[in-house]
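Re-run requested by the PI after the first attempt was lost when the workstation crashed. Everything re-entered from the original request form. Ligand of interest: fe (ii) ion.
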Amino acid sequence: MSIEVAQRLPRATDLDRTRGTFAEARTLPGEVYVSEEVLRLERRGIFARQWLCVGREADLPAAGDYVLKEIAGDSIIVVRGTDGAIRAFYNVCRHRGSRLLDAPAGRGVTRVLCPYHAWSYNLDGTVQTAPRMGDDFCKAEHSLSPVRIGFHEGFIFLNLDPKAAPLATHFADLPDLRRFRMGELVCGKRIEYDVAANWKLVCENYSECYHCAGAHPQLARISEQISRDERGQEIGDCFNGGPMRLRDGIETMSMSGRSTLPTIPGLSHDDTRYVHYYVVYPNMLLSPHPDYVLVHTASPVAPDRTHVVCEWLFTAEAVGAKGFDPSDVVQFWDVTNRQDWALCERAQAGVGSRGYRPGPYQSSEDCVHLFDRWYADQLAALL
Ligand code: FES
Ligand SMILES: [Fe+2]
C-alpha cells in the first residue's frame, strides 16, 4: 500500500463524481479504503452515530446473559435484566472509569462487579454496592452510562448517539419484511471471519453479482441476476437492495440447489422464487431466502481489516427438529463468503496503490453505486 495514500484524507471534491448520476459516477477515491484518518472519521461520524446491528435478542435468553460489543472503540455491555428487558451500558465503572467486564459473553451473571474497588451494579445499571463511600454517597447518581438500544424483527441495534432518531423512525422506509418472520427465526449457524479488506469493500462486493459468473460458479448455476428495469430499484434513506431469481427447479441457495428445511410459513409463491439482498446502512447485509435468512455484519477493525459475523436464521421448527442439518446451505454460503473475501482482499491490495483511479460502474452495479453514494454523502459531511 502506498504510505502517501494511507495518510491522506480525500477532499470533498474527490467524492463529487461518486455522488453524481449513475451513468457519470466513478467509484470512491482510494483513501477511503486505506487511510487511518478516514477510519477515525467513520468511527466518529458513522459508527458512533448510527444504529448498528449487534446481534439477536435470542442470543440472551435469560436474565444475566450478556455480550460485549465493540463500537467505534468503545466496549458496550448488552445484558438481559431480571425484568426480562435487554439494556446496553458502556463497559466503564462510574467510580474511576475501570473497564468492568472482560469475558466477551457470559450467562446468568447476577451483577456486574468492578475488579478495581469492588463497586457492583445491578443488571439494570444501578449501583448495588459501593463499599465505604460514606453516608452522603448517592447511588442513583452513579448508574452505568446507558447506550441507546432498539429492537427490530429479533435483531438488537445500538446507537451511541443520544440525539439520534429512534430506531423505528430511522427504519421507517425499510421494506416490510414481516412475511419472513425474522423475529421468530432461530440462529442455526454462526461463522466469524477476519477479512483483510476495508469494510466498505465487503459491502460493495455484496451489492453486485457482476463478479458471480467468474467467481461463484456454484452460485451462478442456481440463481440469476435480474435486470434493473425488471426488478426496479429498492432504495431508502437507510438501505438499498434488490432480488435475484432462483433458476427453474432450484429451491434455495444451497450446494445441492434443494431445500431440506421447511419453507418460512406463509410466503407467497413469488417469495419462494427469489432471494433478496439488502444493505442496511452502514454495515448490515440482510438476505431473506425461502427457507432461511442470512445476515452478515461487517465491522471495521482497521482500514484494511474487517470482522464479519455471518449467521444463518431458520424456523424454530427446523432447528428444533431431530437431526437438524443445515450443512447444505451453510457450506454453500461459507464457500461463497470465502470466494468473496478473496476478491475483497484482492481489491484492497489495489485501491491503496498510487496507480488506482476511481473507475466506472457496470450497468448491474447500481446498488454498489447507491451504497458508495450514501457513503460519500456521509463522509463529505464529515470532512
Ligand atoms: S474504578 Fe470501579 S470501583 Fe473503582
Ligand atoms: Fe460474491
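Saved to the shared folder this time. The radius of gyration is 22 Å.
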